[in-house]
Amino acid sequence: MPRKLAQSARKRFGQNFLIDGRVIDAVLASINSSPNDAIVEIGPGHGAITSGLYSSGCYLTLIELDRDLVPNLLADFVSKSPNRCRLINQDVLKVDFSALGTRLRVVGNLPYNIATPLLFRLLEHGGQIKDIHVMLQKEVLNRIAAAPGNSAYGRLSVMIQATSSVEPLFDVSPESFAPVPKVDSGMIRIIPDGSKRTRIRCMDTLTHLVRQSFSQRRKTLRNNLKDVISLEEFGDLGINPQDRPERLSVETYIELGNYITQQRGIA
Ligand code: SAM
Predict the structure, then answer these.
(1) Cα–Cα distances in Å, from 187 out to 5, 68, 232, 265?
(2) How far is the C-alpha of 99 from the C-alpha of 248, rounded, in Å?
(3) Whether residue 14 has its Cβ less than 6 Å from ligand 1
(4) CB-CB contact of 46 with 18 (8 Å)
């Protein structure tokens, strides 16, 4: 079976199918779904995680791009329980999440090629999402969870931690998949937090600030933000302009973003 899966996998769809029963059990245990949950699974593939989710009795929305996988997903899940299972055969980046409901629990062994834009998109819909449990490339997971001062700390860390709590769960070795990927993987839990979100006065300003700050990692804040903040303002805010962008905490980026929003009368 693993060899068959490896042969049929499509690289352009980021297909690395889970074949290790212990990892599948660990993924399902971390999600711990129950009958009233509204679960959205991204990239169900051949249903490695889907079967366990389905058995829990939850409401299930499957989003799968590869149309060759659709007939089996329909036969195994949707046709059996059309009242609680549906399938969307579309690119998840084009799916209108606002139409999917509220208190959504988003799960998946993600296609790694779209993981970062997908996470940003999910967080735009953070108000509708209860939690996110996803398998990611370990390197991306490390960037999401990194603390200030760490070499992995950057735009992804700040933007996700500014709006959500983040909990790395466990590592997964390449041999757990067919075909075997070239990278290590890991499972992470991300919980969008409305109280964090409301502290941010203008999300666009924060997004722009963080992008500019990390535009050249080796340069100083002064250099990267010369068009955004004056030397005098750095002084007023108690931020050392000679610091590198990875020195500032998430909290400081939020304060800085709010300061710019207020000073420039943006919101
Ligand atoms: N969940 C299965 C498993 O764990 O064995 C498959 C995981 S595989 C890493 C990623 C899945 O996402 C594949 O089924 C692939 O066809 C699907 N996929 C790839 N790109 C997608 C996209 N843009 N939108 C929705 N699904 C996508």
Answers:
(1) 22, 27, 44, 41
(2) 37
(3) yes
(4) no
Cis before residue 179, ω within 30 degrees of 0? yes
User: Ligand 1 within 6 A of 15 CB?
Assistant: yes
Query: Measured from the CB, is residue 41 less than 6 Å from ligand 1?
Result: no
Task: Answer whether residue 198 is part of any domain.
Answer: no
User: Which backbone phi and psi does 39 adopt, to 5 degrees?
Assistant: -100, 135
Q: Are residues 225 and 148 in the same domain?
A: no
Cβ(16) to ligand 1 under 6 A? yes
Determine the distance separating the centroid of ligand 1 and the alpha carbon of 103, expressed in angstroms.
23
Whether 111 lines ligand 1, by a CB cut-off of 6 Å, is yes
70 and 98 in one domain? yes
User: For residue range 45-56, what is the model confidence (pLDDT) as tens digits?
Assistant: 999 999 999 999
Q: Answer yes or no: pTM beyond 0.70.
A: yes
